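Backbone-to-sequence.
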């Protein structure tokens, strides 16, 4: 799909969509718990659909209701071990890294014989050393890199060791599987943990379902590295009956950045100002860029002001990097965004595509090792952008268009379906001018 944007500032108010990250976690916990759970989730997207589809393949019954899902759990019996219902299940993760990395340990913990498949770049995104740890603990995986990925055997409880810098989704996935294991387990994470707020989201989801994880920090025997230990002790998932998926800060960020780049305030309604989502920090970042930010009840508002460069680390906020870079491209001075290595293993090589596609609109951006260096300017020229099938790159370009002099064409704009199918509707709701056509 081609999006043809006639540059214009955005203004007004949009409702937040449901948090994709929290939806994955709460629907998984619901499908693994003791009874039926009503998961209030006001929107969906391709990635959430993928998680629902995988759980259904494992035997959960998930009915779509007016305001979300009614989740009837996977029929399981820990005492019985491997259950017939799971054998031969096909788990199609689409393009969702979260779905694959969460459902793989879960399927292993259930003793499922399952075949995982996925699309586009998902087969290239790393699974090791998560797969090594699963294999060391009793599972057989056809883990030669890529799909189909076939699992069999049943995961044993025990000690798992993971690095903190590849993907926090490995840690979240194992944590989500622990309540299914017949015994206590722990994950020892060595070194710095990147994307740490996403682990906090997992802990929050587990807690809602009655699962407590103890956390301990210590120094490794070498006296230098940090070790973080996450320990579960025999808790099982217990449904609270109803849970609500909160608003999504990662996607709200696009509109809040639009507020910083435009002429008038932009508001996002229905987001928690005390959320555990790390991307809530978009507000703090925008105020450091010089934008005026306002917190209201369950809403955030951003107003433009003179923008100036502000350098930061992407360690805890990888998904904000593309749209924050669009703001930096129009802020006075040079912004450096450090710790972007993991961006190379997202839906696209997001470090490269953030730089190349902003440059296609006339921005001055370079890559220095794992950092983006953005030389700000008042306005951009406009031009043709390729989404590289990456939703956050397509949305970044649409927001950068606000400051472009000429038209912006976004090829592969359908990528927004991964997390935000209503993105261009909301763009228009805020006064944006976009024409969508088939390519
Ligand atoms: O757990 C999650 O919901 C996510 C974790 C992050 O990935 P990494 O931990 O791989 O950085 C983030 O980029 C992704 O969009 C969602
Ligand atoms: C990287 C993302 O998601 P996932 O890892 O779940 O594919 C994302 O939404 O930007």
């Amino acid at each position: 799909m081609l999006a043809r944007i006639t540059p214009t500032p955005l203004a007004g108010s949009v409702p937040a969509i449901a948090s994709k990250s929290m939806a994955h976690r709460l629907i998984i916990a619901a499908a693994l718990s003791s009874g039926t759970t009503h998961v209030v989730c006001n929107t969906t997207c391709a990635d959430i659909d993928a998680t629902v589809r995988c759980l259904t393949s494992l035997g959960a019954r998930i009915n779509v209701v007016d305001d979300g899902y009614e989740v009837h759990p996977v029929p399981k019996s820990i005492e019985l071990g491997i259950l017939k219902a799971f054998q031969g299940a096909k788990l199609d993760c689409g393009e969702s890294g979260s779905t694959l990395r969460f459902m793989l340990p879960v399927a292993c913990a259930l003793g499922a014989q399952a075949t995982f498949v996925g699309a586009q770049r998902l087969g290239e995104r790393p699974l090791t050393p998560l797969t090594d740890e699963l294999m060391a603990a009793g599972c057989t995986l056809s883990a030669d890199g890529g799909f189909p990925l076939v699992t069999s055997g049943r995961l044993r409880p025990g000690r798992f060791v993971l690095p903190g810098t590849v993907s926090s989704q490995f840690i979240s996935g194992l944590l989500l599987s622990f309540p299914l294991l017949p015994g206590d387990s722990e994950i020892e994470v060595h070194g710095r943990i990147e994307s740490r707020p996403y682990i906090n989201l997992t802990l929050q989801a587990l807690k809602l379902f009655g699962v407590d994880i103890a956390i301990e920090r210590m120094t490794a025997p070498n006296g230098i590295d940090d070790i973080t230990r996450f320990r579960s002790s025999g808790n099982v998932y217990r449904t609270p009956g109803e849970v609500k998926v909160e608003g999504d800060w990662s996607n709200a960020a696009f509109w809040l950045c639009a507020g910083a780049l435009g002429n008038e305030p932009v508001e996002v309604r229905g987001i928690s100002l005390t959320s555990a989502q790390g991307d809530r920090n978009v507000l703090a970042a925008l105020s450091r860029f010089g934008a005026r930010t306002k917190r209201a009840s369950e809403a955030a508002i951003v107003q433009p002001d003179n923008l100036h460069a502000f350098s930061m680390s992407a360690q805890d906020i990888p998904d904000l990097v593309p749209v924050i870079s669009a703001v930096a491209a129009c802020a006075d001075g040079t912004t450096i965004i450090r710790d972007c290595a993991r961006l190379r293993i997202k839906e696209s090589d997001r470090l490269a595509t953030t730089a190349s596609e902003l440059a296609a609109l006339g921005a001055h951006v370079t890559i220095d090792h794992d950092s983006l260096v953005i030389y700000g300017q008042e306005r951009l020229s406009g031009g043709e952008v390729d989404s590289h099938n990456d939703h956050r790159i397509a949305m970044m370009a649409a927001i950068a268009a606000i400051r472009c002099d000429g038209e912006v064409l976004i090829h592969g704009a359908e990528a927004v379906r991964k997390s935000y199918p209503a993105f261009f509707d909301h763009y228009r709701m805020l006064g944006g001018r976009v024409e969508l056509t088939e390519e």
